């Protein structure tokens, strides 16, 4: 049952948590960065001024900026016949990314603040060594007093292995650097209980104590003309951040001095409280960064062992193996109805699990010729869903 809180209590949490936030990730969407004519320089100027204000309070700030594809479209006057295909988007991002960074460099420069460009692909975060390396680089940029500006490296990203949207990328970056606050700026005032563009009765939600299926259902499958993820991916992002122990905010990117207003405790937009128990960073990475390569179907006993007794997964409880994976890959576990109950790092390849499923741990070596681990998935590498 979600805890309901009134406006006054919501305001108290907001003021306390914004005040305490030292590390902040701000994500800005294409919807507000562009106008009919080109890049929205007024919004970018406001944003830069606002970020510099935060930076000058001693906070460490990262900007995750969309807009490369939109900027590329404006630059070459690209008018798509239908939905813009992946191939065109990759080329448009290559054109627009430099336009975007040029504008940021000039704008932040006018406020005596230096910026850095960091372009990431999914594999930069899914390989643990690269993940930690990105963290080191961002920490070094903070030490240099520079504001990192991050985008997905769309031009070289492979369709099946993309973050897909910058809301997700922003949330993953927030967890990577253990940010206190993830601020998602968009073209609506916040989360409504229905799409405000189409539902006249839609009402704003000021505080979300927990991202429940009911909250997730508030976002239909709708987005702005230039946006990618819509409200759905923003809510999912807020959930990821909450699991990692951070707060999130979704609100109006066109509002003047929005960041200054937020940090002085104004009741604008939607504020998401953190979870009281923080998921350890490594488990968060397994759960949200890695893309599962397969699925195991477990019997009733194994489901109970994992979900209620905190046990590791042994071969005897596995009924079926789906997909092709190697040792070390992320694999989902489901019950017999297909409901996913956990995800974790597997110790054996799909062909080996296929051979040892339903058998006793003591039989592993005899069946496949070796035994590196008793468990197919160790509980330290396993996250319940
Ligand atoms: N419940 C909701 N509350 C607010 N906005 C919603 C809701 N459901 C869908 N939306 C849509 O989400 C859009 C914002 O997402 P998106 O277009 O991806 O923007 P961005 O480019 O900033 O990421 C809004 O313009 C609105 O049409
Ligand atoms: N990486 C893409 C943006 C992807 C994206 O998530 O867009 P948006 O929904 O506007 O935040 C770009 O720079 O155009």
TrEMBL record:
Keyword Transferase: yes
Binding, ATP: 27, 186-187, 228-234
GO biological process, alphabetically ordered: L-proline biosynthetic process
A family per Pfam: AA_kinase
Domain named PUA: residues: 294-377
Ligand binding (substrate): 66, 154, 166
Enzyme type, top EC level: transferase
Location of the protein in the cell: Cytoplasm
UniProt xrefs under InterPro entries: AceGlu_kinase-like_sf, Asp/Glu/Uridylate_kinase, G5K_ProB, Glu/AcGlu_kinase, Glu_5kinase, Glu_5kinase/COase_Synthase, Glutamate_5-kinase_CS, PUA
Record field: catalytic activity: L-glutamate + ATP = L-glutamyl 5-phosphate + ADP
Example GO molecular function: RNA binding
Pathway the protein acts in: Amino-acid biosynthesis; L-proline biosynthesis; L-glutamate 5-semialdehyde from L-glutamate: step 1/2
Alphabetical keyword list: Amino-acid biosynthesis, ATP-binding, Cytoplasm, Kinase, Nucleotide-binding, Proline biosynthesis, Transferase
A Gene Ontology cellular-component term: cytosol
PANTHER family to which the protein is assigned, alphabetical: GLUTAMATE 5-KINASE, ISOPENTENYL PHOSPHATE KINASE
Similarity comment: Belongs to the glutamate 5-kinase family.
HAMAP family xref list: ProB
Function according to Swiss-Prot or TrEMBL: Catalyzes the transfer of a phosphate group to glutamate to form L-glutamate 5-phosphate.
Protein name: Glutamate 5-kinase
């Amino acid at each position: 049952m979600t805890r309901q809180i009134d406006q006054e209590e919501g305001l108290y949490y907001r003021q306390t948590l914004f005040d305490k936030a030292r590390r902040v990730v701000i994500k800005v969407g294409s919807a507000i960065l562009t106008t009919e004519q080109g890049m929205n320089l007024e919004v970018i100027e406001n944003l830069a001024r606002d970020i510099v204000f935060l930076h000058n309070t001693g906070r460490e700030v990262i900007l995750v900026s969309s807009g490369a594809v939109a900027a590329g479209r404006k630059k070459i006057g690209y008018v798509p016949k239908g939905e813009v295909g992946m191939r065109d988007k990759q080329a448009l991002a290559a054109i627009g990314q430099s336009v975007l960074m040029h504008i940021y460099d000039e704008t932040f420069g006018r406020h005596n603040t230096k910026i850095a460009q960091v372009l990431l692909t999914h594999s930069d975060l899914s390989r643990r060594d690269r993940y930690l390396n990105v963290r080191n680089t961002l920490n070094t940029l903070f030490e240099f007093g520079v504001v990192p500006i991050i985008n997905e490296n769309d031009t070289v990203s492979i369709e099946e292995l993309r973050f897909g949207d910058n809301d997700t990328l922003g949330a993953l970056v927030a967890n990577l650097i253990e940010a206190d606050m993830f601020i998602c700026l968009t073209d609506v005032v916040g989360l409504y209980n229905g799409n405000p563009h189409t539902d006249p009765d839609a009402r704003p939600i000021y505080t979300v104590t927990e991202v429940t299926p009911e909250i997730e259902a508030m976002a239909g499958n709708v987005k702005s003309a230039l946006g990618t993820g819509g409200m759905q991916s923003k809510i999912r992002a807020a959930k990821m951040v909450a699991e990692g122990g951070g707060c999130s905010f979704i609100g109006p990117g066109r509002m003047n001095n929005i960041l200054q207003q937020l940090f002085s405790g104004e009741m604008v937009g939607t504020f998401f409280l953190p979870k009281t128990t923080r998921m350890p960073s490594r488990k968060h990475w397994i759960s949200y960064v890695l893309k599962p390569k397969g699925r195991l179907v477990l019997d009733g006993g194994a489901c109970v062992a994992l979900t209620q007794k905190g046990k590791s997964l042994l071969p005897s409880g596995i009924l079926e193996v789906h997909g092709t994976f190697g040792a070390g890959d992320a694999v989902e576990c489901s019950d017999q109805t297909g409901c996913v109950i956990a995800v974790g790092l597997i110790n054996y390849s799909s062909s080996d699990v296929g051979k040892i499923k339903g058998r006793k741990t003591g039989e592993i070596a005899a069946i496949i010729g070796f035994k590196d681990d008793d468990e197919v998935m160790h509980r330290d590498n396993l996250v319940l869903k």
